Amino acid sequence: MKNLISLHKREYGEEPEIIVSAPGSIKLMGEHTDYNEGYILQMAFNRFAEIAISRRKDNSLKFYSVDLNERKRTTIANLKYRREDRWANYPKGVLFLLAEAGYPYGGMNFSIHGDIPQNIGLASSAALITATIVAIRALFKITLSDNEAVELATNVEREFLGLETEPTDQLIAFVAKAGNIVFLDLRTLNYEHLPLKLNGVKLLLTNSNLPVISTEGELRERKREYQECLKFLSDKKSGKVLRDFNSSDLQQMMGTMPENLRRRCLHVIEENERVLEARNVLLRGNMAAFGKILNRSHESLRDNYEVSCPELDWLVKRAWEIDGVLGSRMSGFWYGGCTITLIRENAVGRYLEKLDEYERIFGFKAESFISEPADGVKIVYKKES
∠343-369-325 over CA atoms, to 5°? Predict the structure, then answer.
């Protein structure tokens, strides 16, 4: 934080008036259940996006990325999405929707810093968006509840950036508590904090560092497939989303439904069941049982939903072979991204040794770090008036 203060002052000639920090988050269970009104287990973790802001006397908006040493600029009257603005489109989207809703604000200088790995499903964009909202809300005394802020953050991605997203990352950024993970019901948006009792076990995130590819087309195809599956199931039983059906309902469709559709739906239905099972074992503090559920989730993502890839499968399989690993699975929507590994502290070194072999085989340097459950978005600095 102190470094961001000095960098902002060097860039703009004045200290920031406010700095807000928001965490990244990782989905521990519930992959591809969110757009089926399902259940998820998600955790904010100890990597953050920070945004520092000072007000200007004109209507200019200036954005400075500390990490990239890049600068973008526009005005309040000229807010629009521009592909070449990349990272600056996130705070711009917040400003655009606030202006569209009639909330008043003036020109600003922004400095942005973060250490959340990007484009691998760790909610780096949601962190930057929610940090921006909370900073502007406080700076201009905007009357906006947390629920309204979650909706605004979701709409930045949907309407300004044109992405298909559910309000999971945005909600977690607001409600997360250190030492806890969040059990979230996507039908009602009701949530529950579950204490994470690791007891000598670590959550290790491994970034595969595969090249980033667009997955929007593939995601649309999976959504089309589950809608087709839903039509088959709805002929036998009333229900509007896959959450309304169970494994036995799907079993009755054997021989009637195309096999590829059955496997897609099997993943979503059983993943919902796995989330509920995981919630129960976590409440009992049974990390070994939770690890086994992680393993089953990866097998389903690999075999039924077919969204894994050789690199992630290799990382997961090598983890499974290590004494002291309780469970491991891929995380993220599609090919690439990262893995989550539940590992005893004394086994971490043996796991990290495997990553040199990964680089020799695939040509990408994987990076791992221990993650711990963190608090949600918060104001970390406010200049005294």
Answer: 10
For residue 177, give the nearest of 383, 374, 332, 21 by alpha carbon.
374
Write out the catalytic residue numbers. Answer: 169
The architecture CATH gives domain 2-195+374-382? 2-Layer Sandwich (3.30)
DSSP letter assigned to residue 83:
G
Q: d(Cα 254, Cα 257) in Å, to the nearest integer?
A: 6
The two tokens of residue 24 are 């990244």
Cβ count within 10 A of residue 358: 19
With 0-12 / 13-18 / 19 or more C-beta atoms within 10 angstroms meaning exposed / middle / buried, residue 362 is middle
* pTM reported for the whole predicted model: 0.93
Region at 162 (left for phi over 0; alpha for psi -120 to 50; beta for the rest): left
Domain locations in the chain as residue ranges: 2-195+374-382
Tokens 């209507």 found at:
59
Over residues 236-275, the pLDDT tens digits come to 788 888 889 888 888 887 778 888 888 988 999 999 999 9
Banded model confidence at residue 5, pLDDT cuts 50, 70, 90: very high
CA torsion through residues 151, 154, 160, 162, sign: negative
Residue 274 is encoded by which pair of tokens? 């796995």
> pLDDT for 315-367, tens place per residue?
999 999 999 999 999 997 666 689 999 999 999 999 999 998 999 999 999 99
DSSP 258-314: -HHHHHHHHHHHHHHHHHHHHHHHHHTT-HHHHHHHHHHHHHHHHHTS----HHHHH
Strand (E) or helix (H) holding 228: helix 216-234
Counting Cα atoms < 13 Å in the Cβ hemisphere of 355 gives 19
Neighbours of 323 (CB within 10 A): 8
Burial 125-152 (b: 16+ CB within 10 A, else e): bbbbbbbbbbbbbebeebebebeebbbb
Tokens 């807010």 -> residue: 79
Q: What are phi and psi of 4, to 5 degrees?
A: -65, -35
- Written as six digits, the tokens of 238 are 């009333």
How far is it, in rounded angstroms, from Cα 61 to Cα 63?
7
